[in-house]
Amino acid sequence: MPWKKRIQNKADGRSFSKFDLFFEQNGIAIFLCLGILFRIYWIFCSPCEYNADSSIIYLMGKHILHTGDFPLFNYGQAYMSAFTSYALAFFFLIFGIGELAIKMCAITFSVIFYVLLILMINSVINRKTALWAAFYSVVFPINFYFIPLEYNLFMIAGILFLWILAHYLIKKDRFSAVRVAVLGIIAGTGWYFHPLFCYFLVLFFVVMAIRILFITTRRLRVFEEFLIGCACFLIGSIPYWYGLYTLHGLHDPFNAFQIKKITYAAEMAQTLARTLPSFLVANTGTQLTQFIALLVYMSVITISLFSLKSTIRKWKHGYFRARLLFQFLFVIVLILFSSHTSAKDAAAFRYLAPLIIVWPVLIADVLEKIPLQMQYVKYILAGLFLLHNTYSVYTYNPQPNNLPTLISSIQKNGIEQGFTDYENAYKMVFLSNEILTVSPFWGVDRYISYTHNIMKSPNKFYLFDRNNHTQNERYEKFLTALDIAGITYQEEQFDTFVMIHTLIYESEGMRIPVRYFSPIFIHPNEKSPHQQPEDDSQIFEFPLALPAGEYSIITSVTGSYSPDINLDYPTAEFALIDIQSDALIGKSRCTNGDFQVNPVKSLRFKILHKSSSPVLFHYSMENESFVPKYLIIL
What we know:
Elements: E1 6-8, E2 15-17, H1 18-45, H2 52-67, H3 83-95, H4 99-124, H5 127-137, H6 142-145, H7 151-170, H8 176-193, H9 198-214, H10 219-236, H11 238-247, H12 265-281, H13 287-306, H14 308-316, H15 323-340, H16 355-369, H17 375-394, H18 403-413, E3 417-420, H19 422-431, E4 437-440, H20 448-456, E5 461-465, H21 469-485, E6 487-494, E7 497-507, E8 510-513, E9 516-519, E10 538-544, E11 549-558, E12 570-578, E13 583-591, E14 600-609, E15 615-621, E16 627-633
Parallel strand pairs: 3-4, 3-5
Antiparallel strand pairs: 1-2, 5-7, 6-7, 7-8, 9-16, 10-15, 11-14, 11-16, 12-13, 12-15
Helix pairs in contact: 1-4, 1-5, 2-3, 2-19, 3-4, 4-5, 4-7, 5-16, 7-8, 8-10, 9-10, 9-15, 12-15, 13-16, 15-16
């Protein structure tokens, strides 16, 4: 058999079959082709991803193409670049606005990421590591596919950053300053793409600090190169700083990724214990198979990081191994992630996105460490990895998208403006081709123009999904608040959704249409950026995108009178603040004495809102016994 013919290796005396030689020479190309084909197949056959954040990207791409919109950031944010939307606009131009263009864009980013990752590993480590990494990455675990489309940009920038950083550390020649300059520009661009690029920035600071502290030669030159990198970072991040300037301080740019101080090791361990296993194992199969997979993966982490100390020692003596960068990055991601993320944060998966770059290298590193006498163990383990990844992908059962039917029913109703939860609001706008104008209710208002149109509309709806526990609770509170306020309404049922519309407020014999209505939910831990509360006070606030005009605002507070409290002491305060100018444009308050006769106090104030920027509705109370019930804007 020709494949059985052995070929003697003169260097170490080992012999290889022609199959081994062919596989070593062509395996990477074979796995790359299989991985590309799988990604094309899986993305085309899977339902198109529609969630609150991705729908914003789709709407931006549509606006860029049709309205000439030119955003620097995603709508409603002062971070995360809009570059993905420009790419999507290009695909909309070629394939039309719809699922085909979205999937083609997703395939393009996915393939670029996969190919660059394997080529980078082959370039900075070695061919065998790239071979095993390509094999493992043919099919990623399912949670790796959940990383949002817009995250691919900073991940691709991260691959390029690691690629150049590794060559900078390996090759010590006169072109180092040039490499550091390119690193700085990529780092600035990556930061503009997403603040999660801070993982890579921290990695850069760590390795540069090690070079300055432990590498005894050329310290001054290394420090000079470090300064060059910092300067070029500012050049690469110019779009970010210009974007902040044009937003006029409307947003806090660092709210996206605030690194809180490290509190307790136990809390950090709890966060990792809750999130990391789910991210890697993907919660597929039985509890036994999940436990076995987790045990194997944790063994991979332990074996790979066990050599970290010896690798640093070798670097100190002048021999740098690029694997060190991936081991460092893995540790950095875990530390920063666990120090700023709560263990209860269900959306925390996306903050682990850089592990998609690191994980194939750790897997390949462990497979390479298996001795030659245990080759069959290596192949069996690699096969199990592939089976686990494939199983996690094909057992994924996404929820069906029932919004098109709901949108059709609402359009037949004739009311095309309204509020719903954040998760469905912008999906409904995109899927209806902007025939419906929907903004988040109790959520983040990402596109003020929609809310302006809704507030101007003579009739609007409030939509709740009663199949969702949180929305069902809000629906019940909404009805209770309507009854307390004496507002009449109409209600309609669409499958699991309930739509409330035609809100009318009756006062002094007049029936007045309601522009906006909301029960008030108290969040004691939320602090106002405009007013630092006393220790005993509680604050709640949310933005309203009110168009310019005159408004009558009514709110109700329930409480009890106590003669032991100073009558003039303010117990509750309502205020409207223009977010852009930070100016107070309306204010009303009640005191303990207001509840002496009636346990319910209605506060009214009329404002003339001249600005088109959003306003901040701000409520604070000094005593928990005084509870606000609702907010009406007429």
